[in-house]
Amino acid sequence: MGNDEDYMALLNRAKLNLPETIESHERFELPELDIMQEGKTTILRNFMDIADRVRREPQHLLHFLLKELGTPGEIDNRRAIFKAKISPSVLNERLQQYIETYVICAECSRPDTKLVKYDRTMVLECEACGASRPISVRKTLRSGPDELRAGDIIEIVINDVGKKGDGIGKYDDMIVIVPGTAKGARARVKITNISNRTAFGQVTNEAATR
Ligand SMILES: [Zn+2]
User: Fold this and answer.
1) CB 3.0-4.6 Å disulfide test: which of 29, 122, 151, 179 passes with 135?
2) Which residues surround ligand 1, an ion (CB under 5 A)?
3) Contact call for residues 144 and 117 (beta carbons, < 8 A)
4) Mean pLDDT by 10-residue block, N- to C-terminus, for the chain (210 residues)?
């Protein structure tokens, strides 16, 4: 019986310790996204709830989302309006990216942090464990338009042909248009020009530089 008592005491102690242990490993949960599509507009109806939850300036969060989504938009009362069709999963992904970058402490994984600006560096300070880290804006998931440059030589597969007969391939998230290539071809392409998210190139025999 003595053993049972010890066991119960142990269990109680374990229970007492439990909430904190679980909490610190808990994934930071956002409120469920309340999204409405209206024609070519996407409305995030509980945008302000999300900004409140992450405890960041709504404008800062909006600015990040607009940049990542590559779309104009604005805050309207408690909602955010994006002037594009955006799927809930994409929006959710971008929000998670924001949280990873600007909210979660790298040491203890808690969201109890604040952003502090020192000179030109933004620092994330954790109120829970005291750790701080500079914000490193991770390279966005998609490659930026400036990532591929004119003169680069890449190897791509042409997986489509445009209306004018030009071959079309992809490099990361960029569309690469290459005249004189056929669908299914593997082409070594020298980039001649880049406009927005589209690169133009021509077939080359030179060695790939990427
Ligand atoms: Zn921390």
Assistant:
1) 122
2) 105, 107-108, 126, 128-129, 131
3) no
4) 66 56 60 94 97 95 94 96 94 93 91 88 92 74 60 92 91 89 94 87 88
CB 80 within 8 A of CB 73: yes
Tell which residue, 134, 100, 102, 108, has the closest CA to residue 120: 134
Q: What is the pTM of this model?
A: 0.56
The vertex-146 CA angle with 168 and 166, nearest 5°, equals 15
19 CA distance to ligand 1 centroid (A)? 17
Q: How many structural domains compose the chain? A: 2
- Find the angle CA(24)-CA(27)-CA(28) to the nearest 5 degrees: 95
Residue 169 domain-assigned (yes or no): yes
Distance of CA 105 from the midpoint of ligand 1 (Å): 5
Task: Mark whether 123 and 39 lie in a shared domain.
Answer: yes
